[in-house]
Amino acid sequence: MMSSDHFAYANNGNRFLGTEPLHDQPFALIGIPFDGAVTNRPGARFGPQEIRRASLMLCDGTHPYFDVTPLGLLGDAGDMRLPNASPLPEVRAHIETQAAAWLARHHCVFLGGDHSVTLPLLRAIKARFGQVALVHFDAHCDTWTDHFGEPSGHGTWTYEALQEGLVSPQHTVQIGLRSGGLREARDYVADQGGLIFGARQLRGLDGAALRPVVEAILQRVGQMPVYLTLDIDCLDPAFAPGTGTPEPGGMTSTQVLTLLEDLAVLNWVGMDCVEVAPAYDHAELTSNAAANFVWTYLCGQVAKRAP
Question: Disulfide-capable partner of 166 in 94, 122, 170, 173 (CB 3.0 to 4.6 Å)?
């Protein structure tokens, strides 16, 4: 394991929104350049840098809905240093240790990387905040009990998090699911008492039409501490082609933005955005969407701090 003395920041070239390096700012952004658990197209380890690069087009960072900017309150810690060639449990142990150090001092946003990184993040979140609620945007349920013969991967982490008691089953919400899979996996969260809004349920809903979804989530989560994990493949490939496992029939960018804006009032304790794979992107559609989602989340939290 790395000691705290080794949490040196990688040389990353550019920072999210062009912000300052992380010091004592209340909000922190950290990259997790790992994609060793993908089952289709690799490349998400390059996601953090492309999301940062896309964010530089957000000008002064003032959000048109929240009318605030995270600049001055946000620091970019660069990317975690990870033993990418090591077995997954060892990599996850490094992620958990480093995340815990930052969570002790900051409200953190993590940029993946593949979705296997969320499990160690939730372990660190549980140690810091206790059992939390979970809002999970994804095309895939990620509740398989194995991954093509592997006991753990980017499609098993939700099952593992529930089995470990990291998140409350009744306060787990999944949004955008639509991939193939056995009913036992697809409906696992609902069978445990959670809430699922599949992509088919969301078709044609936008703006005010999404309000019943928002209200259901607000009522379900309440004021419980809640963690957000946003797999970019929740979007239809038309909006996010640059991902490892694209699934047609997904959400639109405006649907995700509406939900992020209207759910900002929840008691968020952190966020990750994962599965951006730049090698398969077109015209930076995917990295731009991811940068906007992260920016919107941060501005929602900054707005709550305003007097």
Answer: 122
Q: At what angle do helices 285-305 and 253-262 cross, to 10 degrees?
A: 10
Give the E-state strand segments of the chain in sequence order: 20-21, 27-32, 74-79, 107-112, 132-137, 167-175, 195-197, 226-231, 268-274
Strand-pair partners of 57? none
**Residues 166, 136: Cα–Cα separation, whole Å:** 14
Question: ω into residue 112 within 30 of 0, thus cis?
Answer: no
Compute the distance between CA of residue 205 and CA of residue 235 in angstroms, rounded to an integer. 14
Q: Is the pTM of this model over 0.85?
A: yes
Q: Please give the full DSSP string across 191-209, using - where no structure is assigned.
A: HTT-EEE-HHHHTT--GGG
The CATH topology of domain 4-305 is Arginase; Chain A (3.40.800)
SS (H, E, C) 130-173: CCEEEEEECCCCCCCCCECCECCCCCCHHHHHHHCCCEEEEEEE
Q: How far apart are the first and last CA of the chain?
A: 42
CA distances from 217 to 136, 143, 191, 237, 259 (A): 11, 20, 17, 25, 10
Q: Which pLDDT tens digit goes with each residue over 49-70?
A: 999 999 999 988 999 999 999 9
Burial of 200 (0-12, 13-18, 19+ CB in 10 A): exposed
Q: Domain ranges for the chain, please list them.
A: 4-305
181 contacts 147 by C-beta, under 8 angstroms:
no
Separation of alpha carbons 2 and 95, rounded Å: 10
CB 1 within 8 A of CB 56: no
Q: What is the pLDDT of residues 82-108, one digit of tens each?
A: 998 888 889 999 999 999 999 999 999
